[in-house]
Amino acid sequence: MTDFLIYDAKVAVLIVVFYMFYRLLLSKETFHRVNRIVLLSTALLSFVLPLCVITTHQTVVLDGVPAVSVGALQPAVLEEDCTTPLWQTVIPILYIIGVLATLGHTLLSVWRVLMLVRRSERYPQADGTTLCVVHGDVPPFSFCSYIVMNHSDYEAHEAAVLAHERGHIRQHHSCDVLLVDLLTALQWFNPAMWMLRQDLRAIHEYEADGAVLSQGINARQYQYLLITKAASIGGYSIAKKSPRSSFLKLLALIPIVGVALALNAETVYDYVYQQPQKKIIKKGKKNTTVKTDTVNELVVVAPPAQPQQVEPVEMPNPLKVDQKKDRAFDVVEEMPQFPGGSSALLEYLAANIRYPKAAHKAGVQGRVILTFVVEKDGSISGTEVVKSVSPLLDAEAVRVINAMPNWVPGRQNGKVVRVKYAVPVSFMLQDDGPKKMTEGGTFNTNEYDIEVDGKLVDIETLKTITPANIESMDVQKPKDGQGKGRIIVKMKQKKE
Question: With left for phi above 0 and alpha for psi between -120 and 50, is residue 378 left, alpha or beta?
């Protein structure tokens, strides 16, 4: 709010300056249309000029390189003063109250005119205007395309009065009044704005009087009529016209606008530290020195003449064999194994997988199939989700796989190679919800029945199964903590 009040104060100063220019140079001239344009344009220009900030940049070269030093660091307590001065609270409140009061008065006046038009007897005219006849002692006036007068004026058929109001309508004086009233609401504290508003209304009357006199009506009779109706007489409109040379007074607006822009301009300083002069050596045809800027110097040095040499051409070697990139095998003679075999892998998965709480709450379950590469040193890399169930279950499966210890690497022709491996991880919900699959971090196989392709086997038989031949492994906890759980192993089907 403080920034807006500063802007409004700049507008107020400009309005005072422009209005003083009008009063001193143009107010006594009879160029009513020009005076009207000057008042409206300067009022609008006063609100625009503070927003036009001309920024200039100036470079300042400082000698040497900036040095930064840090003294002894000591703890300190900073106390921030959050109290706001009283004037910063009172002034915005008073300003807002004045704006609302001025706008309310304008809106109330418009509403009263509309109600008066609504209750009147309306007679549309051929020129597009509407004659509104009302009861009571109401002086003639116009608003937009409506001409309002009382019964006695309507029965008198005063042509001069109708011509006067039609002059207001043809020159759109109502628009000027509404615009200036809105600007006055923002500058309600500025006396120059209220004086500008009053002078603009007087110019409207001068222009309307000129429209009446242009129709051949006697000026003296029309002046007596205005006195009778208690209206302002068009003093300047029936006086001697000002010479055209008076237009040169408008040139005084140019320095006023220039000074306003200059006072609102800003200068930005760009600080540059001067660097020590450097030499850049580059080969060229002859010795010369070129100044590139105030900091760097380009020195071109011609190389000594040398006999032309023929660059050797490398002949292709037929014995050279392109080595292929080290790729991962799908199947090798000795497949990689988890340390301890299949039972150890099953124990690791059962001990480390944790059912995500959000997935359990949403009832999400299923089997996630992952692939990874067992590197030559047995480490795991390139873990990818081949079959996805949900982002939560996928992330948990990837976490457990990436945390596995190093495997026994696979071999092909007696050499250690990279092998791509696939492991399915199943997530199943039990009636009592997901529980820890181990107690104390160990996996007790005596509490589980082992089922391989629908047949119950013992733990020794499970150890003899090659992990590469396993399609899936599911671990089901005992229901309600009673009885035995079940380990379900499904083998891959052999292709004929």
Answer: left
